[in-house]
Amino acid sequence: MQLRAKKRSRSAALVYATLPYLIIVVVLVAWELLVRLNGIQPIFLPAPSSILRYLVAMLLDGSLIYNLSITFMRILGGFVVAAVSGILVGVAMGMSPLAARIIDPWIAALYPLPKISLIPLLIIWLGTGETYKIVISAVTAFFPVAISTFAAIRQVDPGLIKTAKDLGATPHQRQIKVVIPASLPGIFSGLHLGMGVTIIMVVAAEMIGGSSDSGMGYVLVHAGQVMETEKVFAALIALAVFGAVITNLQKRLDRLVAPWSDTKQ
Fold first, then answer.
1. What is the CA 134 to chain-centroid distance, rounded?
2. Is residue 263 part of a domain?
3. What is the pLDDT of residue 46?
4. pLDDT tens for residues 191-245?
5. Quick one: residue 210, left, alpha or beta (phi over 0 = left, psi -120 to 50 = alpha)?
6. Side-chain-side CA neighbours of residue 66 (13 Å)
7. Domain check: are 91 and 219 in the same one?
8. Which domain holds residue 35?
9. Dist CA 174 CA 164 (whole Å)
10. What is the pLDDT of residue 188?
11. Per residue in 171-197, pLDDT tens?
């Protein structure tokens, strides 16, 4: 009986581990058959095999790695600015009621504003160079980081703070050794959201006409203009994989920085 139970457990674990990949394979096969059997023109919906050929060609000629690395550097620049400033503002709001009272109305007013609507204004102020792309991505990512940090600090279990106080910890020690570590999971969630919107805004900024001659946004626009639908899909797939890799790296870094926090999402 125990042997059968172990076999069932192993089979269940194997199914659980492979099921997502099997679904992907099934979707791709169905997609391929749909296109081939119905004679759909590549300009409207290319087959996965055709997209794969374009993806391999872009890898071999170096254009994919080059443009993806340019986009990554822009994403990293904006994200670092947003992460540092957002965490500092969120911590200040969480630790000081006066700071929260002063800053909260500004965040409440500016956060709902569509950040993409700032692009024309930033182009007027900063031009279409690298600074404009980094600033628009940083502005966009700042708000989820700051709001998540503020919320995480305010939601720290009061019992932890009271225990530290009873043990003789000073207010500064309670903030540094209790409040900040306990709020790290929430801060990490804000950083994940910030990274997501940073990727979106950098690619959107690269897609603005005349604002870029490199990056994945440029690849998407240029391929669309010459009706290379396979290349558009290839670039989108590359961005999706890139985003998944970045997200997993963030999760690993979260566990490394704060192994006590549960960041399994």
1. 15
2. no
3. 92
4. 999 999 999 999 988 888 656 788 999 999 999 888 899 999 999 999 999 999 9
5. left
6. 9
7. yes
8. 1-40
9. 6
10. 92
11. 778 888 888 888 888 999 999 999 999
pLDDT digits (tens, 9 = 90+) for 65-88: 999 999 999 999 999 999 999 999
Same structural domain for residues 167 and 195?
yes
Same domain, residue pair 189 and 101: yes
Both tokens assigned to 210 = 């005349």
Q: Is residue 39 classed as helix, strand or coil in its secondary structure?
A: coil
148 domain residue, yes or no: yes
Dist. CA 59–CA 241, nearest whole Å: 14
Phi-psi region of 227 (alpha: psi -120 to 50; beta: other; left: phi over 0): left
- 213 contact partners, CB below 8 Å, separation of at least 6: none
User: Do 13 and 52 sit in the same domain of this protein?
Assistant: no
What DSSP state is assigned to residue 42? T
- Answer whether residue 221 is part of any domain: yes
